[in-house]
Amino acid sequence: MDCWSSSLPHDDEFEKLMRRINPPRVTVDNDSSREATLITVDSANRRGSLLEVVQVLTDLNLIIRRAYISSDGEWFMDVFHVTDQRGRKLSEDDVAERIQQSLGPRGRSFRSLRRSVGVQAAGENTTIELTGRDRPGLLSEVFAVLADLKCNVVAAEVWTHNSRMASVVFITDESTGLPINDADRLDNIKQLLLYVLKGDRDKRSANTAVSVGSTHKERRLHQMMYADRDYDVDDTDCGGTTSDRRKALVTVENCADKGYTVVNLRCPDRPKLLFDTVCTLTDMQYVVYHATVNSEGPEACQEYYIRHMDGCPISSEAERQRVINCLEAAVRRRTSEGIRLELCGDDRAGLLSDVTRIFRENGLSVTRAEVTTRGSQAVNVFYVTDASGNPVRTETIEAVRSEIGLTILRVKEEELLSKSPPQESGRFSLGNLFRSSSEKFLYNLGLIKSYS
């Protein structure tokens, strides 16, 4: 079958001109539906339009219940049925303006950088990107190195999937609170973190690179894991059972009369699912011409009509299977396995190093983490399993909470909270900090003189 010529504009200057003449138009309709707010976005078409719109809605913490997407030509129009996090219609009068401003002229990057450790100084923080083979205690080792190098972690996000780990960490200098720009110091940080990531077994993360420009944190994590080929299914070396990995049902078929490839995805619904799948299709160099999304029930159904950038549909069985594997990986990367631990307390230097050290010493493995700082408060979320990926025993969780502080570290699961002893105010005991295996680890890196 002959390839259909792509109608997307390719010339950068033409895109800029079309954007100036026809800026994105956003309308918000609160009257047509009793259950959701309808947001319509239409604009001149260009590569990445759909991802940009979905990313903006996701960053505004909106839940997309339905979506109808059409971009077959030089114009695109997307209609989204959205609610807030509590399932209510939107009440903000300025939501259209906020979306329109977010979609305005700004730099965009579709790079798929293949690196293991990258450092960039951007804005108020220095950004570190990490990818490597996941193993119990890895996050503890990373944060221990950063703490010893006088780096303050102000935010971070960590994903693990298929025995791989990707992380974006935002740091400042511990003493000044400013970004770290010294080239020699950055090189030292990269080399020590690379040493940690490689460990004894990982040969796929042996390079370092310095990234340029700012990136969207979750967008970047998808790029990093895709570049690291976390979608390669290895039955002898991946977390979870086969049934776990196949929770997402993906079919890929060609529509011969229209020249499209039709992708259908069905899986349990969760927040940001549409963003995750659109990210992956974009990274794979596919263009979404039409799509319908329905996630009003417990299950999400997504259908995409796609072609390559050159206008061709999928042409081989190997490529079809690769699309299936990549979309399954996109669904699972953000899937939270394990017990959810929520840490909220006064922020201080070395906090994450201390917390993850205690996790490691109690046999906990972090499968996902979200680290934020709000003023003087640290607000962190960790999903943990035991070292084998199995559920953690209640006694172990309570031992960890007792050591960190019962009012500082909480468990979301009600059944565990109901078994907790009476809460009491708790702080870290710093007297034995870095005694045991973490001190030996730092000694081996040459960061301290003795661990005896």
Automatic annotation (TrEMBL):
<protein>
    <recommendedName>
        <fullName>ACT domain-containing protein ACR</fullName>
    </recommendedName>
</protein>
<feature type="domain" description="ACT">
    <location>
        <begin position="340"/>
        <end position="419"/>
    </location>
</feature>
<dbReference type="Pfam" id="PF01842">
    <property type="entry name" value="ACT"/>
</dbReference>
<keyword id="KW-0677">Repeat</keyword>
<dbReference type="InterPro" id="IPR040217">
    <property type="entry name" value="ACR1-12"/>
</dbReference>
<feature type="domain" description="ACT">
    <location>
        <begin position="38"/>
        <end position="118"/>
    </location>
</feature>
<comment type="function">
    <text>Binds amino acids.</text>
</comment>
<dbReference type="InterPro" id="IPR045865">
    <property type="entry name" value="ACT-like_dom_sf"/>
</dbReference>
<dbReference type="GO" id="GO:0016597">
    <property type="term" value="F:amino acid binding"/>
</dbReference>
<dbReference type="InterPro" id="IPR002912">
    <property type="entry name" value="ACT_dom"/>
</dbReference>
<feature type="domain" description="ACT">
    <location>
        <begin position="127"/>
        <end position="204"/>
    </location>
</feature>
